[in-house]
Amino acid sequence: MARKRFRNFTIAAILFMSLVAIVITGFGTGGFGGLSSLSGNGSPTGNELARVGSVAITTDQANTQFNADFRQLRQRLPNAQITEFLNQGGFEGAVDRLIAIEALRQFAQAKGIIVTRAMIDTAITTSPDFQFARIGNNFDNNIFQRALQQAGVSVEEVRSEFGRQLLQRQLLEPIEAGYTVPLGVGQAYATVPLEQRTGMIGVVPVGAIERSLNPGEAEVAAYYQRWRDRFAVPERRVIKYALIGPDQISIAAPTDAEIGAVYANTPRYQAGQIRTLESVNFGSAASAQADANAFAQRVRGGTGFRQAAQAAGRGDAYARRANQTQRDFATLVTPDIAAQAFQAQQGAIIGPVRSQLGWVVVRVETASAGQPLASVRADIVREIERRKRRAAINALVSQLEQQIDEGTSFEDVARGAHLTVVTTPPITAQGQLSNGQAWPQVSADLRALLPAAFDMDPDDSRAQVPAIEEGARYALLGIDRSEPAAPPPLAEIRDRVRSQLIRRTALVRARQIADAIAARVNGGMPLAQAFAQAGLPLPPPQSITARRLDIMTRQAPESLQLFFRLRPGTAAVVAAPNSGGWMVAAPTQSLRTPAATPQSGEEARQQLAQAAPSEAESLLLRAMGKSIGVQRNNAAIHAERLRIAATMGATPQ
Question: What is the pTM of this model?
Answer without folding.
Answer: 0.46
